[in-house]
């Protein structure tokens, strides 16, 4: 519980953490930001890392001269593209094996037809999914993994991977650069970050619930 509270406190005061880190370790902050963005987008077990707020706050520190804007953007772009690529490759390697275990217990629960449907979906709509997922916490961690598991075409994935990374990094870093040090925004930065995360996540959750309710309603209707 103490660890969880410490993590929540860190996320809510990430600006203070970064400021203190820059004062003590200087340019090592670039390594930390690179590692966090790579881990959040590249390792499916770390969807809780605060990527959005880090990009925004990093841009704000660039505006004060404590970090270099061009270098930060370049490193974060590399981290975002490399992270998604790693996640895609992990999904590509693990996905087929999961569905071909030949273990009777698992065979009952794994639906190869569903995997094929997912593949078809990603071939048709995967580009939009990869790009939009960049702006939705948790979803951006799982989207490239699912794309790999469903065998989305490599060239198609990489095209939208790069486009999504460019939009995500440039938008959030530049927003932080131009607006992150406005007194009102700086004072209520934590609230703004939480509202932004909620605005991205809530529609996704509501959409999933709506689809589930419709499916249950259709299954329950008399035939």
From TrEMBL:
Residues 49-177 form the VTT domain. It is a multi-pass membrane protein. Pfam families: VTT_dom. It comes from the Bacteria. It is found in: Cell membrane. The chain crosses the membrane at residues 28-49, 55-82, 159-179, 191-213. GO terms for cellular component: plasma membrane. Keywords: Cell membrane, Membrane, Transmembrane, Transmembrane helix. Belongs to the DedA family. This is VTT domain-containing protein.
């Amino acid at each position: 519980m103490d660890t969880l509270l410490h993590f929540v406190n860190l996320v809510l005061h990430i600006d203070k953490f970064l400021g203190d880190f820059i004062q003590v370790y200087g340019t090592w902050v670039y390594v930390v930001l690179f590692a966090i963005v790579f881990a959040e987008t590249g390792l499916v077990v770390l969807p809780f890392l605060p990527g959005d707020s880090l990009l925004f706050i990093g841009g704000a520190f660039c505006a004060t001269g404590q970090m270099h804007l061009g270098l930060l953007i370049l490193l974060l772009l590399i981290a975002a593209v490399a992270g998604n690529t790693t996640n895609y490759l992990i999904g590509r390697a693990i996905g087929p094996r999961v569905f071909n275990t030949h273990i009777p217990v698992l065979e009952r629960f794994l639906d190869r037809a569903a995997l094929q449907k997912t593949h078809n979906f990603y071939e048709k709509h995967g580009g939009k999914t990869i790009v939009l997922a960049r702006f939705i916490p948790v979803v951006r961690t799982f989207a490239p993994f699912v794309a790999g598991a469903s065998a989305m075409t490599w060239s198609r994935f990489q095209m939208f991977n790069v486009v999504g990374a460019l939009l995500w990094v440039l938008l959030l870093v530049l927003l932080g650069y131009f607006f992150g040090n406005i007194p009102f925004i700086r004072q209520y930065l934590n609230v703004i970050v939480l509202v932004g995360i909620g605005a991205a996540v809530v529609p996704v959750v509501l959409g999933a619930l709506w689809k589930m309710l419709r499916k249950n309603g259709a299954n329950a209707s008399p035939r």
